[in-house]
């Protein structure tokens, strides 16, 4: 028998038993002792690599950025599409309009946010043109300025829509052509330049006194937080800085705040509303409530006075800022028509932020609204699930067993109990049955309907704020991080209309408070627990919160330095 060399034996053994070898070849050279190694997977189980799911994120606002910051699961391949390659801290936009804070201080490149993450994330500076939900495709167009804007298509397994909203003009004639908006950084910079332009034009010797008054009349439409903060910032800018630079026209400046409702800051506590209106009047800001804008020309605003029988009046102005309402983007309207959600202001989602009528599309932030399910719609299913012995009646014990799931699935139940100062549902059932011991209470389905008939009155829509969007982005990222785990071990409430449990707990918004800067280093704060604080102390709280909420140490340092510079040297009144 022919004797085999060492290398022939190794080669033959590898061919016969290749799947069991992890080390193909190990040889040591005689001269240098170098090692050559070649590795191969030992089996199919080790070689199999799970295919990454493609996640497309539209938008880099509060919701989209919060999602990207908190996504840690490397099993996703993420493609971010947005017309801006940065995140903007929008609550400070009014400060940018008056030079208190520089625009560069409140923006952070999105690539800085996710460049150190272990997740595969790609970014494209482009705008979304169309969503094809049936074929799971997103049609985009490059946003880079050139003669030919490239169009491309992105496929997805999961789509996350976080594009925010447009300004709602309510189809008022002339608004788009003649008014400034305050939604983007570019809007704030344009307002800042226009304010200085108005003062420079009014300083020209050829301009009449009447024309100077018109040019220096600043009109703000909308008495919400943005409109009020801008009016306060503009007043401080004028009285603390510009009057020193333009002393000859300082007495001609006028600021008017127009609000169609009865009060400004209507979403705040009445104590804040009253204080804000009184302070503005003391400061010389003309607050006109009950004034609905019906037309805007290049020099005049026409309003309908709701308190005077609908009388139409005209107001001459030099600059107008429109800050009221949010509207739907065109491609979102098209997407909503595809999924049967026409005639809506925003995309309807379930409590898990999943778009209704879809299985793999999520929407969050200002472009979406949660369609909280009503208890009375599921009352029969709830009764059936709780009635385990099929007796046709429910005891307190049976109800207690599903109590946590009911409160988690339908948050309005907990709100209703709190409003009635009840500890649990047993107190509610006792109220419907009268003076009966809790342990002996039994209800049929009609009695249960009566007991829960007013619960749905506590349902509330979430406000379109940065706080809501940020919490939604964080929640959805946590769901994606635990997707596989929760598929095997669901952690959500009982499926009253089906079997088993929901994969995740539904989204719950936690209100952390809200601020309304009123100028003069005074801020109104409405914090959890119905705690209201107004004054200089709240202003320092506002400083600390807004500094801490910056997305990076870079922007945090820049914002604080801008505030410090303003205290020492005043606001920047240049047009750059």
Automatic annotation (TrEMBL):
<keyword id="KW-0560">Oxidoreductase</keyword>
<keyword id="KW-0809">Transit peptide</keyword>
<feature type="domain" description="EF-hand">
    <location>
        <begin position="374"/>
        <end position="409"/>
    </location>
</feature>
<dbReference type="GO" id="GO:0050136">
    <property type="term" value="F:NADH dehydrogenase (quinone) (non-electrogenic) activity"/>
</dbReference>
<dbReference type="InterPro" id="IPR011992">
    <property type="entry name" value="EF-hand-dom_pair"/>
</dbReference>
<dbReference type="GO" id="GO:0005743">
    <property type="term" value="C:mitochondrial inner membrane"/>
</dbReference>
<dbReference type="InterPro" id="IPR018247">
    <property type="entry name" value="EF_Hand_1_Ca_BS"/>
</dbReference>
<keyword id="KW-0472">Membrane</keyword>
<comment type="similarity">
    <text>Belongs to the NADH dehydrogenase family.</text>
</comment>
<dbReference type="InterPro" id="IPR023753">
    <property type="entry name" value="FAD/NAD-binding_dom"/>
</dbReference>
<dbReference type="InterPro" id="IPR036188">
    <property type="entry name" value="FAD/NAD-bd_sf"/>
</dbReference>
<dbReference type="InterPro" id="IPR045024">
    <property type="entry name" value="NDH-2"/>
</dbReference>
<protein>
    <recommendedName>
        <fullName>NADH:ubiquinone reductase (non-electrogenic)</fullName>
        <ecNumber>1.6.5.9</ecNumber>
    </recommendedName>
</protein>
<dbReference type="GO" id="GO:0005777">
    <property type="term" value="C:peroxisome"/>
</dbReference>
<keyword id="KW-0496">Mitochondrion</keyword>
<keyword id="KW-0521">NADP</keyword>
<keyword id="KW-0106">Calcium</keyword>
<keyword id="KW-0479">Metal-binding</keyword>
<dbReference type="GO" id="GO:0005509">
    <property type="term" value="F:calcium ion binding"/>
</dbReference>
<dbReference type="Pfam" id="PF07992">
    <property type="entry name" value="Pyr_redox_2"/>
</dbReference>
<keyword id="KW-0520">NAD</keyword>
<keyword id="KW-0285">Flavoprotein</keyword>
<dbReference type="InterPro" id="IPR054585">
    <property type="entry name" value="NDH2-like_C"/>
</dbReference>
<keyword id="KW-0999">Mitochondrion inner membrane</keyword>
<dbReference type="InterPro" id="IPR002048">
    <property type="entry name" value="EF_hand_dom"/>
</dbReference>
<dbReference type="Pfam" id="PF22366">
    <property type="entry name" value="NDH2_C"/>
</dbReference>
<keyword id="KW-0274">FAD</keyword>
<keyword id="KW-0576">Peroxisome</keyword>
